[in-house]
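2024-03-11 09:14:02 INFO worker-7 job=invfold-0412 stage=load source=structure_tokens
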């Protein structure tokens, strides 16, 4: 009886979600802990180097075994089956939700925001941030990206203006109606006045959905502070917007309407603006696991948009959770993550640890990330990487990635022997000093601790051994070999 009680006490004390609890071991004495997972993990490796079947598989399986809830994003059509397999092996099928047209899971991101925003202004603000994140994908496709391109200032200006349009339009909608929808926002934007004359004209007032919303919002009950915010929206639509040059107005408008248009159609509308939603990101704090089965390579832009919205909303749910009440860790996993990266990821990564969120991304190379985010995105890429503490680098030939890993790990002092006499003529010269007529000695040189050959020569897995190798680096932690990095074997199943 006593023994039983003690055991029970011991059991209660062990917390599998403690930050120090190991999830897996890269090698003896080199654990990847719950805390490590919540500080972000970036996997690199050429195509076929063993990212997916090696380190990603090991980490996903370990997090599922430990009871994490989370979100799997997908790029390749086969990703869904891969993740279902991991969930099945971890005996967690009861926790699984597959987000795809042929399953019954539906979401409504506006309803979700409405439920969780403290005020109408907050709601308008949050939805604006979401729309701007989505429009980033479109801009990138059109050759912007990373705030870049020749007209960097221009582009920043248009984005800023687009977010003002969204913010003011959403506030008018939020104040004028119970239920807001994206098609309504679209309608409000396209019926906004195009000139100051129009503002004064009776026929515009009669026909314009925008005007009707402003009128209803004007009449709705408001606090002092809300009234002040609404006055700004009113000034915006009746004075500033119509006074913009037609060209500016059309660029700003299309930045936003291309997004609202996509969101109002087909799968994006049915899955993300469902009248009968049955899933919310908060469910993952109780262990729900969702696979966003809209692989980018199959669904293209729409697939990327749907998944970026899910990622954004899931991140938002993480950010507001109360760890003191429920500290079950959760994950956001994306293989080929470059296809789904957005600016907001950086901000989220900075708070991921305090919200117990394990972000695990795999991508081919630093160059691939820069390509995906557009010209001038190098700083953005590095800032995102700086917030990922664990890096696993599989076989790699991309020079930028090699240099990135080299700089990350740093240099060590190498003693080099130098001399101008042939070694066999006087082999002791470097140690006891040169003979007259010759010169020799030790020179020291700081060279990269990690050599390109260390990354080139890693095993890629597959037959006959089914072992892939990676260089593991964990945010300056000492590994059992006394260094900050280590070559580790990872078995494929
Ligand atoms: N489950 C598996 N078991 C054994 N070998 C695999 C498995 N999956 C892939 N492989 C092989 O291992 C190598 C690495 O594959 P993969 O993990 O898909 O690489 P990456 O994700 O880096 O492109 C390839 O040669 C592939 O054929
Ligand atoms: Mg892969």
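2024-03-11 09:14:09 INFO worker-7 stage=emit residues=493
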């Amino acid at each position: 009886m006593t023994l039983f009680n003690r055991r029970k006490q011991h059991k209660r004390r062990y917390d599998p979600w403690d930050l120090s609890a190991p999830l897996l071991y890269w090698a003896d004495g080199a654990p990847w802990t719950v805390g490590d997972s919540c500080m972000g993990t970036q996997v690199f490796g050429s195509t076929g180097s063993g990212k997916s079947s090696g380190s990603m598989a090991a980490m996903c399986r370990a997090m599922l075994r430990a009871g994490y809830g989370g979100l799997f994003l997908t790029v390749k059509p086969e990703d869904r089956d891969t993740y279902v397999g991991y969930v099945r092996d971890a005996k967690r099928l009861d926790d699984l939700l597959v987000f795809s047209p042929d399953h019954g899971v539906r979401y409504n991101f506006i309803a979700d925001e409405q439920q969780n925003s403290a005020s109408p202004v907050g709601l308008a603000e949050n939805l604006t941030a979401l729309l701007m994140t989505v429009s980033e994908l479109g801009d990138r496709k059109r050759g912007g990206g990373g705030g870049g391109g020749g007209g960097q200032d221009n582009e920043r200006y248009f984005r800023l203006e687009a977010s003002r349009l969204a913010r003011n339009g959403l506030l008018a909608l939020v104040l004028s109606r119970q239920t807001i929808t994206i098609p309504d926002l679209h309608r409000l934007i396209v019926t906004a006045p195009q000139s100051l004359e129009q503002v004064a004209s009776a026929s515009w007032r009669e026909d314009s959905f925008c005007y009707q919303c402003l009128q209803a919002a004007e009449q709705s009950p408001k606090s002092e502070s809300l009234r002040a915010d609404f006055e700004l929206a009113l000034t915006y639509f009746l004075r500033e917007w119509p006074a913009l040059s037609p060209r500016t107005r059309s660029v700003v408008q299309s930045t936003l309407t291309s997004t609202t248009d996509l969101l109002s159609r087909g799968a994006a509308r049915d899955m993300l603006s469902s009248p009968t939603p049955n899933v919310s990101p908060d469910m993952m704090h109780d262990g729900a696991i969702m696979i966003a089965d809209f692989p980018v390579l199959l669904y293209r832009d729409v697939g990327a948009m749907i998944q970026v919205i899910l990622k954004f909303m899931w991140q938002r749910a993480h950010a507001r959770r109360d760890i003191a009440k429920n500290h079950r860790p959760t994950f956001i996993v994306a293989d080929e993550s470059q296809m789904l990266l957005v600016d907001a990821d950086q901000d989220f990564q900075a708070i991921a640890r305090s919200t117990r969120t394990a972000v695990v991304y795999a991508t081919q190379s630093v160059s691939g990330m820069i390509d995906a985010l557009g010209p001038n995105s190098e700083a953005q890429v590095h800032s995102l990487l700086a917030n990922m503490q664990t890096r696993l680098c599989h076989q790699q030939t991309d020079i930028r990635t090699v240099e990135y890993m080299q700089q990350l790990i740093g240099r060590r002092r190498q003693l080099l022997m130098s001399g101008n006499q042939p070694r066999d003529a006087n082999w002791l010269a470097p140690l006891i000093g040169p003979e007259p007529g010759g010169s020799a000695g030790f020179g020291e040189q700081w060279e990269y601790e990690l050599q390109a050959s260390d990354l080139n020569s890693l095993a890629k897995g597959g037959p006959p051994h089914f072992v892939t190798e990676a260089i593991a680096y964990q945010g300056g932690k000492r590994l059992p070999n006394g260094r900050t990095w280590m070559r580790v074997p990872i078995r494929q199943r």
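2024-03-11 09:14:09 INFO worker-7 stage=report msg="Residues 145-150 have pLDDT under 50 and may be disordered."
2024-03-11 09:14:10 INFO worker-7 job finished
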